Description:
Layout: H1 21-36, H2 45-54, H3 59-69, E1 75-80, H4 87-90, E2 98-103, H5 119-130, E3 135-141, H6 145-152, H7 164-170, H8 174-184, H9 188-206, H10 210-217, E4 222-229, E5 234-239, E6 244-247
Parallel strand pairs: 1-2, 1-3, 3-4
Antiparallel strand pairs: 4-5, 5-6
The structure holds zinc ion.
Amino acid sequence: MLGQARAPVIPSPNTSFKTWPFYKKLIATNRSRRRRTTVRGYGNLIDGYRRFRANQSGPKREQWQQLAESQSPRAVIIACCDSRADPATIFDADPGDIFVVRNVANLVPPFEPIGGRDGVSAAIEYGVNELNVREIVVMGHEKCGGISAVLTGRFHDARPGEGGFIDIWMSQVDQSARAIAHEHGTSPKGHRLLEEAAIRQSMANLRTFPFVMERERRRSLVVLGCHFSIREGELWVLDEAEGKFRPV
Ligand SMILES: [Zn+2]
């Protein structure tokens, strides 16, 4: 029967297109093809996504549908980009619980009304003024690469693309870095002290934002600082009255 084309099956005008068997089969084939398709370039990320999707039935689906309507996170967390210090993991937070801002070494620049394209200030503004969070937490961590760079001067005067962006960003804590390096060198203690100093400085800078200051004064917002020890998996919180970090 070679050369003889099969006559196309045309649905009757009364048949809904989507109930036409051929259409149903096509949808099923495409679905199974999609399932088998390997998405290139994502490494094992898509495997993780599929595990996530497989776990999204029932109440979790409803939770996502509610979250799609609005969000009401409790806190803004300012954390480092470091892959080992993920706030959602450390605080065992669900989607919608925390509003996270991440950057190198969890720094907050001071309030600068003409600062330009400042994503940190934009996120703080949104979290505080639009979402009415009750806490802003600056979370530093052990073995911070940004802190190490400024303490050792590794990228000092480097060009953008060769460490220069890190150098400029981390220059915010240059003064503390110099003082600590003078006293403790680049020892582990020096690193820890600078990690803590950067948290304190970010908290002080947060308090230069008028709307943060005002809400803290009215006690509708608190500014907090903490440090995560990767090796111990332990969180140390800053007791501002004593000026010390202690484990919780
Ligand atoms: Zn870091």
